[in-house]
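ok trying again, last paste got cut off:
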Amino acid sequence: MSISPTTRLLVLLALGLPAAIAVGLFAPHAWPWVPVVLLAVFVLAVLDGVFAPVGQGLAIVMRLPRTVGVGRAVTVPFSVRFAKARQPARLEVRLGLNTILAGSPYDRTLDRTAEGFSGRLHLDARTRGRGDIDKAWVRWQGYLGLVDVQKAVRIDGHVVVTPDLKGVEQDASDLFSMDNIYGVRIQNQLHNGSEYHALREYDASQDHRRIDWRSSARHMKLYSREYQAERNHHIVLVYDTGRLMGEPLHGLKRLDRAIYAGLLLGYCALRIGDNIRTFAFSSRPYHAAPMISGTKAFEILKGQLSALEDSEDESNHTLALADLNAKVARRSLIILFTDFIDEISADLMLEALNRLSKKHLVMFVAFKDEVVDGLIARRPDQPEDVTRAVFAKRLSLQRDRVLTQLRRQGVEVLEAPTEGLATAIVTKYLALKRADRL
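nice, full thing came through this time. structure:
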């Protein structure tokens, strides 16, 4: 615990010098009282520090959640408690937040109420990792406001910022409850897909081309074949974790948004009956998980994707996609989460994707950068705005040419608004599944 002078005390002491000069010039007979007054102020400051509320037994009570989904905002109430009866009327709190939680706002000035001192910490999780709150600094004034008393209090609290699993479950529930989405509800309906399911008696509402003439002749009645969507497809989630994927997009890293989309797609695919595997690379491939299946495998998928971290290395698409092509033997739907800057940096990626698309169905997820679109659409006010708009337009045209080249190579290109990217990927996957392209 430390005691320091307040601004009020320093101002009083600073005013003492001009006051002493003024007394000496205009009332010399009263000048001996000047040091007495200054001494009295000093004594009052000492007494204010002696009788100020003490910090023995000071504690901060805060119940942090164990996990928080990245991009989520959570409000955590906390309270400051004094063990002694003497309490200040107001105090200030500074929490020691690490870089994961550094942008989280909280109540810094707390007034005493009937319940004591209470505030709120608004956890703003913008990146995955472990957010620590190691200690807090509490400061209050003496009763006269002449001294500040400060004490450091250990908290040792932490919260793990994970992918937004609650959002995944909510979005997946919304997808599967919509009749216009090819989810479980429509998955279980018949007449769609290419996998034979059963025979049923023919009626006029059915396609006559599905009549099974051999079975109809056996039963002396018209029967048609029913089909359902084929299951057991292989889906590979490929993550580029290089430098560009660590750049923020609407407040969240591109990699975090890609992980969220992969979790949502994995949840839906595993529930439908398809298989999932993950692959990650930066300057070289470093993660290649085996195929998983079944709804219980979603826990495995969560662990695999939560462990991915972006790096400062440049991405090597040629090495990574060649290694992936050698490891994935069966035709699969390969969903690539990556990014590029211009045509030059995308040349090697285009060549590697061309080889990969001859064997597999490749979906290229293009992160739509609304910042660049905003620079193009914004009305320029300064000469610098024109320069930014021209540069942004050039990047946009180069990006469009790369995406056009990918489409010509047979790659499915998905470009969607940032906030709707995850659901757009699932919708695209279900549309490909309905069209029997997997």
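cool. The longest strand covers residues 147-162. The chain has three domains: 1-162, 165-185+231-434, 195-228.
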